[in-house]
Amino acid sequence: MEQLGVEPAEEAGGDEEEDAVQAMERVEAGETGGSPGVHGQVVPEGSSSSRVIVHVDLDCFYAQVEMISNPELKGKPLGVQQKYLVVTCNYEARKLGVKKLMNVRDAKEKCPQLVLVNGEDLTRYREMSYKVTELLEEFSPVVERLGFDENFVDLTEMVEKRLQQLQSDELSALTVSGHVYNNQCIGYKTAKRLEALGISSVLDLQTFSPKILEKELGISVAQRIQKLSFGEDNSPVTPSGPPQSFSEEDSFKKCSSEVEAKSKIEELLASLLNRVCQDGRKPHTIRLIIRRYSSENHCSRESRQCPIPSHVIQKLGTGNCDVMTPMVDILMKLFRNMVNVKMPFHLTLLSVCLCNLKALNTAKKGTIDYYLTPSLSTTSRSGKRSFKMKDTHMEDF
DNA sequence: TGGGGTTAT
DNA sequence: ATAACCC
């Protein structure tokens, strides 16, 4: 752990990601002490409303994990490869011209000595990522994750307590410096819409008519991004806690038969079941996601989901039962619901997601919910729910 | 463009 | 179920 580096704060030039470490504040708008802060976070009595939030951004995270796993990689230009992309690389490689998300061919051309490791299996990255989050949670439980390599920690309470400990002479000797980050680009789609309005810089956004912006983007997005343009972000740090979903995906050039799809789905599901088993909670919903081949509209995906039948959920923790078969059956039903297998098809991605995670026995014994459970109905798109008895509770009668 | 994740609609 | 966002 102590080997993991954080991106340097003083990084001057470089691409837009390189602004990197930001020990900074999300600037509180308006409110002063005594009243509840925005978004329901309570500002303590008699304190100022400004917060202290640390943003920890791990440097070329996957590459660092690989160098820790295999120290022989240290000092060499290293890229982490997923399919034909170098998704990230260490600083040796960057010095030699390799960029994030660069094609493997281009990267090898730029840097023939580049060492590549496969990073398609995220297991070790995910594990290391949560170790970092857990470490930060020792300082304050209020830690929000963003991806695998970023954490926001709200240290307001800790700082206030420490300031109260200080004598007045120590206090006056304190100097503080910091900066508000220059945020660029806000999201691809929104950026395009803003550009159409003639907004291409932060200054443009600051000075644009709020009313017109609200009409274009909706009040929610408009007000938020315009505040952001002034460096004001009143959003709370929301503790992430355990993940709300587990998913595994695989992309490929072509999948055009049902058997092929089934075997890929089986692989994805097997990994997922291991993960969910370790987590301890049980998923109550399963989803299948596909991406169809198309020249345009490339990022669009389709999905179908359904509840996991309770008798399958119950088997989940117990290693001896075969839980694969019923779940693969469900997934293939979802598959055929999306893909007409009697017609030719061409898929470029399959993904399985387990979500709606619950700690065991959510319903209390003796309550209606204990005896009733939403039924498996993949076709029902109305808000109506049908219910059936839980099989395993029949003996209770 | 990968292999993840979240929230809003 | 999808769309948008984040990394």
From TrEMBL:
Regions of compositional bias (Acidic residues) in chain numbering: 8-20
GO annotation, biological process: DNA repair; translesion synthesis
Residues of the full protein shown: 1 to 397 of 659
UniProt domain UmuC: residue ranges: 53-162
Keywords assigned: DNA synthesis, Transferase
Name this protein carries in UniProt: DNA polymerase iota isoform X6
Keyword Transmembrane: no
A GO molecular function held by the record: damaged DNA binding
Protein source organism: Neomonachus schauinslandi (Hawaiian monk seal)
Superkingdom field: Eukaryota
Residues covered by region (Disordered): 1-20
